[in-house]
Design a protein that fits this description.
By secondary structure, the protein is α+β, with helices and mostly antiparallel strands. The protein has helices at 36-51, 69-77, 110-129, 168-177, 216-227, 264-267, 270-279, 359-369, 379-398; strands at residues 5-11, 23-28, 56-61, 83-87, 133-140, 184-187, 205-208, 230-238, 282-290, 302-309, 312-320, 327-334, 337-342, 347-348, 351-352, 377-378, 402-403. Helices cover 28% and strands 24% of the residues. Helix 1 links the parallel strand 2 (23-28) and strand 3. The longest helix is centred in the N-terminal third of the chain and has 20 residues, at 110-129.
């Protein structure tokens, strides 16, 4: 069908001084030693050592042993390593130019791949240069194909088939070909990068994984809101980003990159979803937020939102990547009293509602499998959260109120 490139890049700030002392560079690669791309990289390292008379020694760390595939580009960008190899079309969500080589039927031979790279390279080089990265070379994979147990004579023959889609282009191909799964799907939040219409699909059920709706504390607050008049609601969530995944460098995760869907508005959008669910949907909002700390990220690290909902005149949400002590709390002020909820402690006032770390996820999956749609987030509700996110970004930028 087409050829797809694996690409080697280097940080632009790197230089090799004339020195009597040899330098050693660590080079992470995603594939095992048995894959020809890794064999090429090993030969490349040998050639560099020979060409520099031993002044530069590149140590190849294959099979994601130093950094996982998804982390390699950002590891080079942040200076953690000076050089690395990655699968080019993994970046197609950043810019469509990174995924041109993965379009079906564009380049079906090595000769075609060479012509395509000649046209693609200047654009890719310019885009990566803006991130402080320099392309060294690209090597095409053999042409990919579609292999099935039965004969394919038309697009209709693809209906109902399942296959692995390892980049955005193949996901789009699967959708256009009608080769999607026809059962139920649970989609990661937020639903999309940007708000828009919900595309047609063949799923018998599709939901968004806002699993905090299944937390016993949130369900208790839903019950309270249904039986009382809520005068005000305040939600707070914060935890230092370095604590999220303590075994990894926060600078390499998607949370650190706005282009990859990072930032508190999207990462912590559970709060927007459950307030919408508890309080009947938002009507208007204003916000302040952005990147204010010294965290080495380019995504938003603090946001504060003031909103009016259908069933509550005043609601606030505060979210951040900075709190040294993890907190996730909600306060409801109602005509029947005030209710202070702590999701981490599992408590509403003095009522204990403990839950295990995986209980909400298990309950959410059971709801999907059991056709119970009473709590789970629908696609339409998930899209509403995206509208809230974009409204908050607009309000913060233009310093205005935004209506639904």
């Amino acid at each position: 069908m087409n050829k797809i490139f694996a690409t080697a890049l280097v940080g632009m700030a790197i230089s090799i001084p004339a020195s009597a002392f040899a330098q050693t560079w660590n080079m992470p690669t995603p594939y095992s030693d048995k894959v020809f791309h890794t064999a090429n990289i090993i030969e490349f390292a040998k050639d560099v050592k020979a060409a520099t008379n031993g002044a530069l020694n590149i140590i190849v760390h294959s099979a994601g042993s130093l950094y996982k595939h998804a982390e390699i580009k950002n590891a080079v960008r942040s200076g953690q390593v000076p050089i690395g190899e990655f699968f080019l079309s993994r970046l197609s969500n950043e810019n469509a130019a990174f995924g041109i080589d993965s379009q079906p039927f564009v380049a079906t031979s090595y000769a075609d791949a060479a012509k395509l790279w000649a046209a693609q390279k200047p654009v890719v080089t310019e885009l990566l240069a803006k991130q402080g990265l320099m392309v060294l070379f690209a090597v095409p994979w053999p042409p990919q194909g579609l292999y099935t147990n039965g004969e394919i004579n038309s697009v209709a023959d693809l209906a109902g088939l399942k296959f692995r889609a390892y980049n955005a282009a193949l996901e789009r191909f699967a959708a256009l070909a009608g080769a999607g799964f026809k059962g139920k799907v649970l989609l990661e939040k937020p639903l999309f990068h940007k708000a828009g219409g919900i595309p047609g699909h063949s799923f018998s059920g599709a939901y968004v994984a806002y699993n905090l709706r299944f937390h016993p504390v949130i369900r208790r607050l839903k019950e309270i809101a249904q039986s009382a008049t809520v005068h005000a609601a305040h939600a707070y969530v914060g935890q230092h980003i370095s604590q999220w995944r303590p075994d990894t460098d926060y600078r390499h995760g998607y949370s650190a990159r706005k282009s990859e869907g990072g930032g508190v508005l999207r990462d912590l959008s559970h709060e927007l979803d459950y307030l919408n669910w508890i309080l009947g949907g938002w009507k208007q909002l204003t916000a302040a937020g952005g990147h204010f700390s010294d965290l080495e990220i380019d995504s938003d690290d603090i946001f504060s939102i003031l909103l009016e909902t259908e069933n509550c005149p005043v609601a606030t949400v505060q979210m951040n990547y900075l709190d040294a002590a993890p907190r996730r709390e909600v306060i409801l002020l109602t005509d029947k009293g005030s209710f202070h909820a702590d999701l981490i402690a599992g408590r509403v006032n003095s009522e204990r509602l403990k839950t295990g770390i995986d209980d909400t996820v298990i309950a959410e999956h059971k709801a999907v499998l059991g056709n119970d749609e009473s709590v789970i987030c629908s696609l339409e509700e998930g899209m509403e959260v995206l509208h809230m996110i974009e409204a908050a970004e607009k309000a913060a930028h233009e310093k205005i109120w935004v209506s639904r």
